[in-house]
Each structure stands twice: as C-alpha cells, then as structure tokens.
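Box 4.2: Ligand-aware structure prediction
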Amino acid sequence: MLRLYDTVHGEVRDLATRDPGRLSMYVCGPTVYDLPHLGHGRFTLVWDVARRWFTFRGLDVHFVSNITDIDDKIISRAQREGVRESEVVATYEEQWWAAMAALGVARPDDTPHATAYVAQMVALIETFLVDDVAYVTSDGVYFDTSRVADYGLLAGQALDSLRAGARVESNEEKRSALDFALWKFAKPGEPIWPASFGDGRPGWHTECVVMSLGLLGDGFDLHCGGLDLKFPHHENERAQAMAAGRAFAQHWGHNGFVLVEGEKMSKSLGNFTSLTDLLSRTDARAYRLLVVRSHYRSPIEVSAATIADAERALARLDAFARRFATPDVGEDLVRATDHSFVGAAQELVDRVGALLDDDLNTPLAVAEIFDAVSTANAWADQGASDEAAELARAVAVLLGALGLKIFSGDETLDDETASLVRDRDAARSQGNWAEADRLRDELMSRGWVVEDSANGTRIRR
Ligand SMILES: [Zn+2]
C-alpha cells in the first residue's frame, strides 16, 4: 500500500483511492506573469516524481495542473509594459512549458486555464450569494469564512487564532479579515467578464475548486502544492467546496521550501535568478537529482554549490550507464510490469520500492541506488559481468521511474556509421530481421553498443 503524509491529519496515512487502481491528483499550477522561479522547479519535480512512482506501482493516475491566466500580477505587468494581458500570458506560459520540458516534467493529463472556467466560477458564486455564504461590497464579492465550521483545518489552527493573527484589514466592508475575494468588480482598463452580481473578474481561490471538481469529480484523491499554498489558498479552496456541499480532496500533500540565501541571489556569485536561468547553465537532470536526494517535505538549498554537487553525482551515473550500456528509461512514465529482474536486482527493486511507498522516501531510495552502482562496478571488476549488468539495468529502471534518465551522451556519427543506422532502421521497418541483425553485428564490430528504441536504432560507444 502506498502511504503519504496528509497535511490535515498531520501523519503518514494510506493513500486509499476513490476508484480501485486509479488515482486522481490535482496540483496547483503557476500564475504565468514572469519566468518560473526555483520554487516552481521544485514543486513540479516533487509531484512529477510522485506521479511517476504511483504510475510505476500500477496506478492509473489522472494528473491535473492548472494555469492561472488572469490575476493582479498579470494585469499589472501588462499595464507596465503597455501590452495586452493575453500577450503576457502567452509569453510566460511558453517559458513555463519550455522549462517543464527541459526538466523532464511529464505533461499533465489536463492543464485547465482559469479564463476558460469563468462561467462556472460565476455560477458557484451565485449559489454562495443565495445561501448568504458570500456578500457584496463596493469592490467585489467576498466569502464569509465564519460560515464554514472547520475553517482552519489545513492551517492547523482554530478560527479565533487565525483571526487574531490576520493582518489589520484596510477594507472595512469585510465581515472578517479572513474573508477573501471571490470576485473583483471591473476597473477601467482591466479584463472583464459578465456576472449577474456585477461584471468583473474572479479572485484566485475559486478557479482550482471549479477545475479540480470539474475534471476529477467529487471526493478526488489527492490535492498537492507547495507549503506556501497550504494557507490561505488551499484552505480557501476547501472552504468553498464545503460551503457548496461538495466532497473535496481526500488527501492533502505539501512540499517544502527552496532556500536561497538572500544576498547570494546575484548571478555574479554563481547562483540562479530563475529556473530558466538555472536550466540555461546546467544539466537539467541535476536539479531533479538534487530534489530526490532530499525528502520532499524538507527544505532544500538550491545554489551553484548544491547543483554542482548534483552534477558530479550525475556524471558518476552517466559513466555507469556508459560502462553497462544501460537501457534508456525515464522519458515516458515507467511501469513496473514492463520490467522484470532476478536475484540482487529484484532485491534492489524491492528495497527501493518499500522506501518510496512509505511517504516517498527518495533520499534513502537514492542512497540505495548509489550503493548498487558501487556494487555493480565491483562485480564487473571481479568478472561477474552478468550479475553486474542485471543490477545495472535495475538501477537505470529505478532512476527512470523517478524521471531521471541516465545515458552516455549523444554521439556525433560519421557518415558511414549514420548510413548503417539508417539502413538498419529501414530493414527493421520492412521486417527484414536477418539484414537488421547483420547491420547490428557490423555496428558492434566497429565498437558500437546497439539498442532498439521506439525511435529506432540507438548506438553509443
Ligand atoms: Zn489552487
């Protein structure tokens, strides 16, 4: 059984799913108004690893992550730069997906955009007004948090102590400082949507309620995000679902912060100003390795030094991949049922599996994998090449299950070799296996390791 820490209960619990064999999972996505930052890189990697591991274990995962494409920050950037909001969104959403592709974060099954769900948000707010769960002020519609009995469940605090800790509110029309905007009435020059209670635009907290319930259904399994979203964003999402009488997420997961020492943020000291900056200067896999070497609930330090350390570890893994010509695994989601092992390799898969099943203990799992790298190298040195190769294959598959591809690097092929590869692909596509085998032997005699992949013949020294 997969187990995961649940923020509401404050403990590691069984990840029981609503539908047997299926897992519905929602991760709050970015507001696209600037380059993605290092924290974006971490939360997407953490929940990508989780999704990949749950898939490896046989669950059919439905992964939804939204794009917030209407927000104060988008509007103010558009006004500052004298462009339309849609241009700001297009520019930074493109940067977002470029960064995700570079990180090897698998595309969500659904990526709902807030602006496509405004009509549903308006309908939800209308029901809140009818039920007096929401009220109208001069600048918008607010949610009355006192109407949800267990408001504060995710924050882990009672309403009174939350209220005492809330900022002194400038808006005197609000019934409580904890109440939040569901809808902001139109201001000149801002994007506007029609609503019976007054034209305007949605607040941030309503979109995820409408999109998660709309795409995953009532009582979906797992809602995730960074720890910074726990309160008030997730609390406010949950409050709306409760007020609407809908069963919301059954399990809440939150990942820890990224630490960057303030004065060391400058490029001149070799640190990273954005995720895009980091990815332009380093092997993207280093950030994934850095993330999985820490527990997802702990803070991590992302700096030139910690990334360089991860790059050195990665170089060791790539050298290992070259030595054993390990299979290319990790681009697509990996399923355990597609790989079987014997002996020490299966024991490694079992040990690593038990660690990851228990609240995604990636640091101990990765330590086990690095131990196996040492063991396989030692066995190969001693001549036990079959056992070593089997263990090496398990290492590649387990790292691939975490989305970490190890490989020997792309080779530049001379014309003659490239032509042999092309001829072999042609022979295979025609079902001419004898010729394909002959060409494989020819390549091997020239010192190449030959592999068959979905994209055809792959070779390396
Ligand atoms: Zn959200």
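In the box above, the bound molecule is zinc ion. Residues 28, 208, 233, 237 surround zinc ion (CB under 6 Å).
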